[in-house]
Amino acid sequence: MAVTGTRGPREANGNSFFNRTVTIGSFAANGSRTGGATAIPLTDSAAGPFAVELDLGVGSVDLTAGAVNQVALWADFARQGAAAVRDTDAEAYTLYRQTITTVTATSDRTNVAPGEAAAVTVKVVDQRDRPMVGVQVRQVVGSTVTTDITFTPSGTGPREVGSSVTLTYEALDQLGQPISDLFIAFTRSGPGAGSDTSGSSNTLTGADGTATYTFVGSVAGRADVTANARQGSATGDAVSAASRTASVTFEEEQVDPVKPRIETVKRVKGDKLVLIVTVTASTQDPVQGDVVLKEGGKRLAAGALNSQGSRKLVVRGLDRGFDSLRLVFRGNDLVRKQSRTINITIR
User: Residues 188, 196: contact at Cβ < 8 Å?
Assistant: First the structure.
């Protein structure tokens, strides 16, 4: 506690007339000044203002929880060489142990971008709503971002090969406010053997806290896209808690198989049959697959269609007379299985 006062002037003969000491003590219940006093000498004998710090933990002051004390400050004074005379005008103060009751922190900004700062005012008051001094306030510096980070592709489910996909990165702070000026570096592996580490799509999050990455899945497979966050620039500190990875799967277009058209050209010479088969369909050009020629349950000839969707089948040693053969196209994922009858006469 700081105590200030003023010493009186010297007398004309040079004798001093000033306050010698400041004494701290307690009032008794009847108002008299009682024991437990501690004298604080003022060694400077010059007249004029003085100041002294008093330790309120000394003497009869009770600072236990709940205790209420009255502390009196009074002064002794005297002419030089004379006995001290106590000042009758004492100052009394009521003391109590302060307890931290309310702590408030107010910032001049609600959203601080990486590399910037905000001024925060901390106020501490006690149980009587009076300010407290000497309270230690520690500054805690947290990470730049990281309350709500999302990285999601447009649409849902597998995508068709050749389609474009946009992934959106969004960063919000603990107050739900967008975090701007985060540097986001995008890298992609796949789909298939494709990848992108060029950095051509790297960018800063905007005022809305978002950044986007767009690419085309050229082949079937899974693409993994990673968004790596840094503070402010490509050389800024990494913010690992704000980095995310998203995946997108690409598949070939699923088409229901259609009924094909089978055309044949046949030539019979002696016991030999030459059959040229061509298969066409709206879902595949050229049609791919195998054709088989049977007589009852017996296979006579078989083979795969060529790059024009055709196949020449040759059968020798056929018996004389009329016969009905069965030609079968076995089908594939895009073209249904189909068959037709081939009638021949061997003479």
Answer: yes
3-state helix, strand, coil in the chain (%, to 5): 0, 50, 50
For 87-112, the DSSP string reads -S--EEEEE------EEEEEES-S--
In a domain, 166, yes or no: yes
> How many whole angstroms separate alpha carbon 214 and alpha carbon 188?
11
The domain total for the chain is 4
Write out the DSSP string of 274-312: EEEEEEEBTTBSS---EEEEEETTEEEEEEE--TTSEEE
pLDDT band at 30 (very low <50, low <70, confident <90, very high): very low
42-68 confidence digits (pLDDT tens):
555 556 666 666 655 544 455 555 555
Q: Is residue 256 part of a domain?
A: no
Greater model confidence, 194 or 142: 194
Same domain, yes or no: 7 and 89: yes
- Which amino acid belongs to residue 195? S
User: Is residue 304 a contact partner of residue 297, using CB atoms and an 8 Å limit?
Assistant: no
**pTM of the prediction?**
0.42
Phi, psi (deg, nearest 5) at residue 242? -105, 5
% of the chain with per-residue pLDDT over 70:
67
Is 164 contained in some domain?
Answer: yes
Q: Where a domain ends, among 95, 111, 131?
A: 95
Distances (CA, A) of 133 to 63, 98, 128, 336: 16, 10, 14, 88
Name the residue range of residue 317's domain.
Answer: 261-346
Model confidence over 31-42: pLDDT tens digits? 444 445 555 555
Q: Is 196 helix (H, G, I), strand (E, B) or coil?
A: strand
Q: Among 62-71, 78-87, 299-308, which stretch is predicted with the lowest mean pLDDT?
A: 78-87
Residues 90 and 104 in one domain: no
pLDDT tens track for 286-302? 999 999 999 988 999 99
Rounded to whole angstroms, the Cα distance separating 279 from 327 reads 12
